[in-house]
Write the structure tokens for this entry.
Amino acid sequence: MLSRRTVALGLAAAPLAACGSNEAYRDAVTATWRLIDPDGPGFPARALVHAATLAANSHNTQPWRFVVAGQTIGIQPDYARRTPVVDPDDHHLFASLGCAAETLLQAAPHYGWQGQIESFDARRGARLIFERVARPEAALAPAIPRRASTRGEYDGQPAPVAVLRALERAGQGTVDTVLVTDRRRLEQATEFIVRGNTAQVQSPAFRRELKAWIRFDGAEAARRRDGLYAASSGNPTLPRALGALAFDLAFTEKGETKKIVSQMRSSAGLAVFSAATNDPRGWLEAGRAYTRFALMAEIAGLRTAFLNQPVEDAPTRGPFAAWLGTSGRRPDLVVRFGQGPGLPRSLRRPVRDVLSA
Ligand SMILES: Cc1cc2nc3c(=O)[nH]c(=O)nc-3n(C[C@H](O)[C@H](O)[C@H](O)COP(=O)(O)O)c2cc1C
């Protein structure tokens, strides 16, 4: 059996082994994180689908299929990419579809088009319809390739009041967006996050599912183009076998609690999104509200990262909702924000892999 020391040696050797894989990873990052040119003068379907794939999504499973018909784009759930342990009711899956839908809608004006959701049902997902516009307003589109889940520490500085108001407005709609910036309240929120996280760290099924979606080195990330690239969470990159072992040793209640506490203390605040209805349509809307919020944060020079543990762990969710005071609504998404350095980007599967004929 490998000892902790062997893992440490593996960590030291990793940068050398990773050289070739870094190139593939870097090329994939360059190809992924941009708004691509349209194929021709008509409806820019491929460019819009590419933009939609840049949306945040749970565990980066990218649980979506896109169907183009005329000037409509369908965003359908891909149930083969569910995460049944962390997301037993597909809440996050539909929130992820909402992130994709809103990203697509915000990208459209960049190409001279404007869209809206034409229909939605839980089996087929959302259908978006587009029309050409003379004077498109693409205020949030430039932030689409820059938005990222930045899981490192921030600088602990408060955000200016005008920025907080803009963030609040971006998140509103049918969804309640509550911003928590008071230090005492943030410490209380941290306790709920830690409570939910502790339950997850102690769950063998949760650990198994999470580990399966981690991409431990650049080569694996570039080959699969999905999942959670270790470096995007600020972790060292390692070949899969060593990475899996390091995960088993390092993913502990104590270590994760320490990380959450310092991440929260370094943040300017926390945003909690609660949709009007606790159903797939509501969850979709929560993902849309988060997306507007995250794009606006990016424009304002703020990083964002989810800390969804108190809404994922069912026994923690009720007390967290009561503390938040969302009058009967289910809190859907929890996101911290603040200024800080970026981290290596996550990847996405190319358009051809997510487009249905
Ligand atoms: C519904 C939903 C739930 C998520 N939950 C978490 C979470 O609890 N913790 C976390 O670190 N990231 C979470 N994420 C972020 C995803 O892991 C992230 O969007 C994905 O890995 C792609 O990376 P990117 O956001 O940097 O593009 C969540 C994203 C969505 C849409």
User: Anything to note?
Assistant: Residues 280-299 form the longest helix (20 residues). The pocket of flavin mononucleotide is lined by residues 56-60, 92, 95-96, 99, 148-149, 151, 228, 287, 305-306, 308, 346 (CB under 6 Å). DSSP finds 14 helices and eleven strands in the chain.
